Amino acid sequence: MRTAYQYKLRPTKQQATEIDRWLSMLCSQYNYLLADRFNWYEQNRCPINACPLICYLPELRDNPDYYSQKKTLPNLKKTHPHYSDIHSQVLQDVVKRVKVTFDRFLGGDSNGKRSGRPRFKSRDRYRTFTYPQMKDDCIQGSLINLPKLGNIKVILHRPIPDGFKTKTASVTKKADGYYITLSLEDPTVPTIKPNINPESITGIDLGLKEFLTTSDGEPVAIPQHYRKSQKRLRVIQKRVSRRKKGSNRRRKAVKQLGKQHKKVADKRKDFHFKTALRLLSKYDVVVHEDLNVKGLVMSRQALSMHDAGWSSFLSILSNKAENAGLLVIAVNPKNTSQDCSSCGMKVPKKLHERWHSCQCGCSLDRDHNAAINIKNRALGHRVLKAKSLLSNSRIVLEAYTVLVESV
């Protein structure tokens, strides 16, 4: 299993200047390799299935693939000697990034979904470079040894667990400084806990009035980090727009705006992790709706949905549950707010109607009713059924053992 730990770097002024120089050179090489692929693609493609009698014949050459572009790097270091200052594997990783980007444009990812046309990157948008291989003892005390950059101070806010192997390291420049992301390999494979309790289950209904409501009726207030910081962001954004493009004052304002946006994103991420931890420490099984968040944000409430960060939260919840050996189940979201959780009868409600009231006497909050429906739909899930049968068989076996011993 792979996991990633991110730490803050504290480079010296000389090291920070060298990192910025690397990023600038790598950005230029990335754009050059991407342009080489586009040139071949434009010259060798035809929009129709037949060629005209008179046509332009491009220069015949092989398709620039990963290996052919990788072979150009030794010549690059001869024509541009300053590229020799960059670690060879970091330079090779740029070729890999171009390959992955272009392959997704032409053929799609593992699910067959094609990405948009790759864009050339400005120097402000190329912010990360990767070491594909790292030594296990690269961290000594509060220093990390990065080849050709030297020992850089790192803030180890949490230790690397014993037995984890360091596979790759990515250095990223963000608005408030430099970070390093270590990709760690854990030899153990997480499995579902054998003593999981199928009765310790809850359904959660995500919303905009409350961030989520559990099937027990417990709401979690929505923090609205972006909404609360909009006033400050508006002031800084005006400051950016009023200053002359290319000036140092505008560059400082842009940096200040980036820091403010990062502060909002960090607050939201911290809230997601704490909420997921609170749910998983109380319940063994968490059930949520299988939401099409991309489709939902195509509405007037897009800003509030982005501020809530449902997709990010569900991803964090699933990953943390998998590592803990717990279950997170996604169910069909159709009519969870309309159906009655007591009798199953459909009670149509508009979006502004926040109270569910049915003829059977069931009267409760709309989100609470939806959370109960979500929980009930999970009871027929095959994984939960298997765990329930396993738990029941264990209880019967224990009762039989006690009976035999008493006889």
UniProtKB/TrEMBL annotation:
Span of domain Cas12f1-like TNB: 310-374
Residues annotated as domain Probable transposase IS891/IS1136/IS1341: 189-297
Domain Transposase putative helix-turn-helix: 1-45
Matching Pfam families: Cas12f1-like_TNB, HTH_OrfB_IS605, OrfB_IS605
Keyword annotations from UniProtKB, A to Z: DNA recombination, DNA-binding, Metal-binding, Transposition, Zinc
NCBIfam families to which the protein is assigned, alphabetical: guided_TnpB, IS200/IS605 family accessory protein TnpB-like domain
Family: In the C-terminal section; belongs to the transposase 35 family. In the N-terminal section; belongs to the transposase 2 family.
Protein name: Transposase
Species name: Nostoc favosum CHAB5714
Organism placement in taxonomy: Bacteria, Bacillati, Cyanobacteriota, Cyanophyceae, Nostocales
